[in-house]
Amino acid sequence: MEHEVEQIKIWDLPVRFFHWALVMGFVLAYVSAEVGILDAHVLLGYCLIGLVTFRVLWGFVGTQYSRFRSFLFSPAETINYVRAIRTGHPTHYYGHNPAGALMVFGLLALLLAIFMSGLVTLAVIDYEGPLLFLANQVSDDTSYFFRYAHDFFVDVALLLIPLHLLGVISGSIQHKENLARSMVTGMKKVVKADLS
Ligand code: HEM
Ligand code: HEM
């Protein structure tokens, strides 16, 4: 039987904008902290908080493939997917696959941890920001602990990001599709018969 291949929209504009703005914002936030421009760092931090808050809301009300519900897989399905990667025949998913979904949730959780620890650090060390009321309620040791935690969460993100890229590259090879380009155009090739 012959299958007709067509392009369908998987990633809507808000998800694509979110992704590339996040990549740019993350790099700029990291660099501004490393070179010590705290004002720019905090401003970028607030923008990133807004961006990720928007994505979390979009995960509940957005279009089909952007909804969290569409890439919420059971542990068994995730393990099966990872096992199938080794045999070379994993199921093809149009949205995030189970391994990718795990990485997405991990990165989002990590970003929230970076934001929370950043906001607390801003309050208890620099006496600024919306959590200022915490400033006189913690000891010096605790204050530095939050700064350490912020740095630690960023380091974990720096470990996960290369794994994320590795997942994108291996998924692209395995399913013979360019996942990075799909995150730009929003489109993916699908076999028409599969859609019914
Ligand atoms: C993805 C976003 C972010 C990244 C990648 C990031 C990264 C970093 C890094 C690498 C440092 C240097 C840590 C050190 O060596 O001590 C830092 C420090 C800091 N960050 Fe962030 N950060 C982010 C978001 C935020 C947010 C949302 C806030 C608060 C609004 C924030 C507030 C701070 C503060 C107050 C410091 C301490 C600066 C100092 O006094 O030394 N960061 N951040
Ligand atoms: C140039 C570097 C990057 C490339 C090429 C890239 C590529 C991609 C691709 C292709 C996807 C979709 C995966 C799929 O088809 O299932 C994706 C999703 C995602 N990536 Fe990246 N990524 C990059 C950097 C980053 C960074 C630095 C972060 C975090 C700071 C990040 C966070 C995410 C998140 C949260 C998603 C889920 C998108 C959503 O559903 O809203 N990515 N990335």
Compose a concise summary of this entry.
The chain has 196 residues and is mainly alpha-helical.
Walk me through the structure.
- The chain has 196 residues and is mainly alpha-helical.
- It has one domain: Fumarate Reductase Cytochrome B subunit (Up-down Bundle).
- Helices cover 67% and strands 5% of the residues.
- Strands 1-2 form a two-stranded antiparallel ribbon.
- α1 (13-34) runs antiparallel to α2 (38-61), α2 (38-61) crosses α4 and α4 (98-124) runs antiparallel to α5 (140-174).
Return the string of H and E elements: EHHHHHHEH
Low-confidence stretches: none
Based on CA inertia axes, which overall geometry fits? Answer: elongated
What is the number of E strands?
A: 2
Question: What separation lies between the terminal Cα atoms?
Answer: 15 Å
Please report the number of helical segments: 7
In this entry the ligands are:
protoporphyrin IX containing FE
- Arrangement of strands in the largest sheet: 1-2
Helix percent band: 55-70%
Average residue-wise pLDDT: 94
Rg of Cα set: 20 Å
CATH superfamily grouping:
Transmembrane di-heme cytochromes, Chain C
